[in-house]
Amino acid sequence: MHSSMVSAPAEWFSMAVSTQTESPYFRALLRALVLYLVSCCTVSADEQESAPYLMVGTFFPYILEESMDGKPQGLAIDVLHRVTELTGDQFKVLVLPWPRALRLVEVGAADGLIGPYKTRQREAILDYSATEIYHDHMIFLSRGKDFKTIRQWRGNLQGIADQRIITVRGWAYGAEFEQIKPRLQTVEANTFSHGLQLLQKGRGELLAANERNAIFEVRKEQLQPKIAYLTPPFGRMVGYFGFSKQKGDHQFQRRFNQALSEMHHNGEMLELWTKHGLKLYPETAPQSLSE
Q1: Residue 116 and residue 254 in contact, taking contact as beta carbons nearer than 8 Å
Q2: Is 123's pLDDT higher than 90?
Q3: pLDDT bucket at 24, cuts 50 / 70 / 90
Q4: Among 98, 205, 226, residue whose Cα is nearest residue 160
Q5: 283 sits in which H/E element
Q6: How many angstroms separate the Cα of 141 from the Cα of each of 39, 182, 214, 281, 290?
C-alpha cells in the first residue's frame, strides 16, 4: 500500500498567510496547527499494512465462541491465528447476531464471514474459501418418548410430509431439504433454543438441526433424557470462510486460500479438528445425544 499524503492543509496554510496579518506569532501558531492536521490525516504504508481484516460471525459451538472474558475462541480462531503466521495478515473478530454479521459482509463493512454454509443466495454476496473448515451432519430431533415419530423416520424426507417440522430462522439445511420444504409442514423458531422449547411443548414433531449445535444445546439444557435424535442424518453441510464480494480484495483471498490449503495438506487442519472434538469425515452416524 502507498502512503496517503494530505496536501489540502498545506495549500490552506499558504492562502491563510497571504490573507492574514504578517504577525510572527500568528504565523507560528498557524504553522503548528497545520502540522497537527497533517499528522492526523497522514497514514503511513506500515500503518495501513498492519490494519487488521475484520472477520465477523455468530456463536457456532466449537467453531466460534467467546471465553468468560469475552475473547473469541474456537476452531475458526485457531485457524485465523495460523493464517496470520503464514501470511502476516492480522485479524479482528467480532461475534454478532447472524443477520447483522451477514449484512456487514454484504455491504463491505467487514472483510469476511466465519463458518457459513454454501447456498445459492449467499453466493451472490460471498466469495467462499477454496477449502472447508468443518462438516456438519443434518439431523432431526424428536421428543424422547414420541416412539411413533422415531419409528417413522427411515431417512426419506418425503416420508415425513405429515409431520410438523420445526426449523430455525436463517439456517440452511441443504439443497434436498430446501427443495422439498414447500411440501412439508414447517414451524419457524427464532433460535435453536426456541426450537427446543417448541418441540417440548408439542408445537412440532421434529426439530431440524445440525448435529454439532444439537449436541451442544441439548447437553447445556440437560435435556438428554427428554430428547431423541433420529438416524440416519438427512444431509450433510460444509462450513467455509466467506469473503465480501463487495470489497473484492482478491489478493487477500488468494493469500488466505493458500494458507488454508497448506493447513489441509500438512495435517494441521486435522489436528485442529481433533483438538476441538470435530469429525474429519462425518459419514459415520451422529453421536448419541444421551452421551
Answers
A1: no
A2: yes
A3: low
A4: 205
A5: none
A6: 60, 20, 8, 22, 12
Look-up of cell digits 409431520: 163
Q: What is the pLDDT of residue 79?
A: 98
> Position 231: which residue type?
T
DSSP one-letter string for 74-126: SHHHHHHHHHHHHH---EEEEE--HHHHHHHHHTTSSSEEEEEEP-HHHHTTE
What is the C-alpha to C-alpha distance for residues 107 and 118, in angstroms, rounded to an integer? 18
Secondary structure (3-state) at 60: strand
Output the nine-digit C-alpha cell for 75: 476452531
| pTM beyond cutoff 0.70 | yes
Please state whether the peptide bond connecting residue 9 to the residue before it is cis, i.e. omega within 30 degrees of 0.
no
User: What stretch of H or E contains 133?
Assistant: none
CA angle 213, 214, 219 (to 5 degrees): 105
CA distance 64 to 47: 28
142: β partners: 228
pLDDT reported for residue 40: 43
pLDDT score, position 174:
92
Name the helix (H) or strand (E) containing 40.
helix 24-41
Q: How far apart are the first and last CA of the chain?
A: 53
The CA distance from 55 to 60, in Å, is 14
